[in-house]
Specification:
- By secondary structure, the chain is an alpha/beta fold.
- The chain has a single domain (about 10-225), classed as 3-Layer(aba) Sandwich (Rossmann fold), CATH 3.40.50.
- Helix content is about 30%, strand content about 25%.
- It is built from 8 helices and 7 strands.
- The protein has helices at about 20-30, 35-45, 85-90, 105-110, 130-140, 160-170, 175, 185-190, and strands spanning about 50-55, 70-75, 100, 115-125, 145-155, 195-205, 215-225.
- The chain has a 7-stranded mixed sheet, sandwiched between helices.
- Helix 5 links the parallel strand 4 (about 115-125) and strand 5 (about 145-155).
- Helix 5 (about 130-140) packs across helix 8.
- It binds S-adenosylmethionine (SAM).
- S-adenosylmethionine (SAM) binds near residues 78, 79, 124, 128 and 179.
Length: about 230
């Protein structure tokens, strides 16, 4: 059953936007040139969702076209000034109703008491928020008991690649890439927030020879235990 709504979305629009023009232009290019593999993972990540969905950091709105018709409403946040208008445009042709809010998820959450969602979708975004552990605890409280967190995130590697990720995260990468951090153990944060991971797996993000600190994706489903 879909979760109830108690706060009109128009009331939670916030001034909390971000401006990373280099990252925004690069992401616009990348999101318009995705491989069949990442498209397949996006489809899988959203398959079977129902009811009200909260999507964090929608980018150009790439996920929108993959939502199944069983979703009744998507509330999507995108704070980046060059990306939010593209997400709004993508929302116009989405197969389900999508409302784009130009705010950080932190600003949205601070004003969204009483909101309940059937699911939260995080794709390639938990690397970029300031405090993923605190955010995931807040998201946990917004999901109805039995509801899900769907995640498709790039995660920390081990070995030499892991050491390079730590150097990248401490230097130029977050500054260039809209606060992206490559060496996060996102699944551990999801579990620490209280979710039960029902299934997840890792896949290479790009060919091993490709010179980027982003190496592996994790895709999975986590459930908020029923009360
Ligand atoms: C790499 S992009 C991924 C976009 C989209 N989720 C996708 O799968 O294509 C990361 C996005 O997260 C957004 N983001 C970063 N920090 C955020 C925050 N605190 N609140 C909401 N969105 C955020 C960025 O603006 C950016 O659009």
């Amino acid at each position: 059953m879909a979760a109830g709504s108690s706060t009109p979305r128009e009331e939670v629009v916030s001034e909390a936007t971000t401006s990373n023009p280099f990252f925004a232009r690069l992401w616009t290019f990348l999101s318009n040139h995705e491989t069949d593999e990442i498209k397949r993972m996006r489809t899988e990540n959203l398959a079977g969702l129902t009811g009200r969905v909260l999507e964090i950091g929608a980018g150009t709105g790439t996920n929108f076209s993959y939502y199944p018709p069983t979703v009744t409403e998507v509330i999507a946040m995108e704070p980046e000034r060059l990306l939010a208008p593209q997400a709004r445009k993508a929302a116009e042709t989405a197969p389900v109703p999508v409302k784009v809010t130009e705010a950080t998820v932190e600003a949205f959450l601070s004003e969204s008491q009483g909101e309940v969602f059937d699911a939260v979708v995080c794709s390639l975004v938990l690397c970029s928020v300031d405090d993923p552990d605190a955010l995931l605890r807040q998201l946990f409280s917004l999901v109805r008991p039995g509801g899900q967190l769907r995640f498709l995130e790039h995660v920390a590697s081990g070995g030499v690649r892991g050491r390079l990720q730590k150097i990248a995260d401490a230097t130029i990468w977050p500054r260039l890439m809209g606060n992206c951090h490559t060496h996060r153990d996102t699944q551990a944060s999801i579990v620490a927030a209280g979710f039960t991971v029902d299934g997840s797996r890792r896949e290479p993000a790009l060919p091993a020879w490709f010179p980027t600190p982003v190496a592996e994706y994790t895709i999975g489903r986590a459930t908020k235990p029923a009360a």
